[in-house]
Automatic annotation (TrEMBL):
Species per Swiss-Prot/TrEMBL record: Longicatena caecimuris
Family, as annotated: Belongs to the bacterial CoaD family.
InterPro entries: Cyt_trans-like, PPAT, Rossmann-like_a/b/a_fold
Record-listed E.C. numbers: 2.7.7.3
Keyword ATP-binding: yes
CDD domains: PPAT
Record-given protein name: Phosphopantetheine adenylyltransferase
Occurrences of domain Cytidyltransferase-like (ranges): 5-133
């Protein structure tokens, strides 16, 4: 059985993430989407909220499982028997960053491959950071996230403004 992981902070999940997950689900027998904490980022949504968003977004993908952890990506892949780490690439900047991470991962685990999937053109400029910024400025994000995430983003902004 060919198993891959798709790691990220998914804060929040975007349609771009879902596109990569869906495409990866066609390439592997099982894809584990794992929410890993990024020590350099302060999350807008709790782990529980991100897990809920991810489970709802991936509910129709039978071979996709959702998980979370606090370990290094390559350690998670090894622990769960994954032969590949899926990463999405939107730009040259993403490619250079991912190439460096893939090199480190290969050094730590030669038997785990990194597979780069290029973002679909319609989503290649979207990031969770941009989504959060658009919401702060009252812009419509419905083309880039599902309705549950859109509502949660708008509510989070209202909550922050009320403080």
């Amino acid at each position: 059985m060919k198993k891959a992981i798709f790691p990220g902070s998914f804060d929040p999940i975007t349609n771009g993430h879902l596109d990569i997950i869906t495409r990866a689900s066609h390439l592997f027998d099982e894809v584990i989407v794992v929410i890993l904490e990024n020590s350099e980022k302060r999350s807008a949504f709790t782990l529980e909220e991100r897990l809920q968003f991810m489970k709802a977004a991936c509910a129709k993908l039978a071979n996709v499982r959702i998980d979370h952890d606090t370990c290094l990506t390559v350690e998670y892949a090894r622990k769960h028997g994954a032969s590949a780490i899926i990463r999405g690439v939107r730009s040259v900047k993403d490619y250079e960053y991912e190439r460096d991470i893939a090199s480190i991962n290969q050094h730590m685990a030669e038997d785990i491959e990194t597979i780069l999937l290029f973002a679909s053109p319609s989503q290649s400029f979207v990031s969770s950071t941009i989504i959060r910024e658009m919401v702060r400025y009252g812009q419509d994000i419905s083309a880039f996230v599902n309705d549950e995430v859109r509502k949660a983003c708008v509510q989070r902004l209202k909550d922050e403004e009320g403080k």
